[in-house]
Amino acid sequence: MTYWVYHERQEAMLCGQHALNNLVQANAFTPVSLAEIAGQLDQMELNYMANNNEGGVSSKDYLKRLAEGSGNVDESGNFSIEVLRSALLSRYNIELPNIRQQGLSKVEVTTMDGFICNRSAHWFAIRKINDRYWNLNSTLERPEVISHFRLAAEVEALQNSGYSVFCVVDSLPPPCTNEAMMDQGLPKYWWKEEDLLKGKTNAMTRADDPWKDVGSGRRLDGGKKSSVGAGQQSKPISEMSEEEMLQMAMEASLEQAPQNNAVSYPLTDEPAVGVKIQFRMPDGTRAVRKFLESDVVGTIYSYVSSKSDDRNVELRAGFPPKDIASKKDETIAEAKLAGEMIHGRYA
Asked: Where is this region: Disordered (predicted)?
């Protein structure tokens, strides 16, 4: 049986995302999905402060916390442990306790499925695959095997050097052993285990493998189907960055989406008295504005668009955040958006 090892490499400050994906051996989490979780956690924290601090949303503590911005993702894209935990729990029902947590000290590390390690702003994963442990640090050029004998010493050394080590006792998704499972990850990040173990300098990734065209589709004349977006047609997917693939997917979505007739919603001056709505703007900044409860939700779109160079925006609210475009003609009171945090991104 052939095993493959999935190893995403570092891009920007997205090591938390790469650590999660390397742990589950799939391209399961994106910067967008993790940012949405961070926003949900921020909103929960703000709601707790609003309900438990004297003065509610007008209290000094609440306004200070609001002004500080997100406590779960910074401007560079570094996510908190709570975001990583929430992502694993919601998608895979997997918990991520600290290895020093009470009750885990007696569990032998070589029986655990994997680890997430963190120091300062860097995260990386260690994962068991085919009864071997692999260091899947996204800053490494390729995965590195860790023997069972060395694992305990490595974990202890990490802790002694200031790392926090979080563990998955069991229940991680199974490793990749067949062609179909490889579609869960990006082609350029798959490594054939036997080549890595032999120490080959040209170890085969899926991008070099005959399987790489699986799922790309062919015309009846045997030629490949054209890529989405004229700018991407000459570049194979295996050579694209994550941002380029995300852009390609967005272009495909836009091509397939039905075109709606635009409706204008006039934006009036901010009232002196009204309900407050909090915003995380598409550019990451935060804002708070008052609206009348009788204002329609469409005016919220007009407000965010006016702060975003009049670009089209997608707005989400609630927990978990849901698109509110279908509520544009409802009043803010009817849509129950008073006091909510609304997350915006460019459409």
From this structure: 207-241
Length of the chain in terms of residues written: 347
pLDDT of residue 317: 84
Question: Is 259 within the bounds of a domain?
Answer: no
Residues 141 and 281 in one domain: no
Is 167 a residue of the active site? no
Of the candidates 7, 15, 21, 117, the residue annotated as catalytic is 15
For residue 165, list its beta bridge partners: 117
Find the CATH number of the domain harbouring 147: 3.90.70.40
* Ordered DSSP codes for 276-300: EEEEE-TTS-EEEEEE-TTSBHHHH
Beta bridge partners of 5: 191
- Residue pair 152/160 in contact (Cβ under 8 Å)? The answer is no
Q: Is 148 a catalytic residue?
A: no
> What single-letter amino acid sits at 250?
M
Give bridge partners of residue 134 from the DSSP assignment: 127, 145
Query: Does residue 284 fall inside a structural domain?
Result: yes
Of 168, 191, 223, which closes a domain?
168
Number of folded domains that form the chain: 2
First and final C-alpha spacing in the chain: 44
Which of 22, 78, 135, 137 is an active site residue? 137
pLDDT at 115: 98
- Indicate whether 280 and 162 sit together in one domain: no
Torsion, Cα 333 335 339 340, to 10 degrees, reads -170
Q: Answer yes or no: 122 catalytic.
A: yes
pTM, rounded to two decimals: 0.60
255 is a domain residue: no
Mean pLDDT, the chain cut into blocks of 10 residues (347 residues total): 93 86 96 88 78 70 69 74 94 94 87 94 95 96 94 94 94 92 91 91 66 42 40 51 54 43 79 88 84 94 89 80 89 88 80
Pick the last residue of a domain from 120, 147, 168.
168
Model pLDDT, residue 125: 98
Residue 10 maps to a domain:
yes
pLDDT at residue number 226: 43
Q: Let me know if 207 is exposed, middle or buried by CB neighbors in 10 A (0-12, 13-18, 19+).
A: middle
CA 338 to chain centre: 27
The Cα–Cα gap between 107 and 311 comes to 54
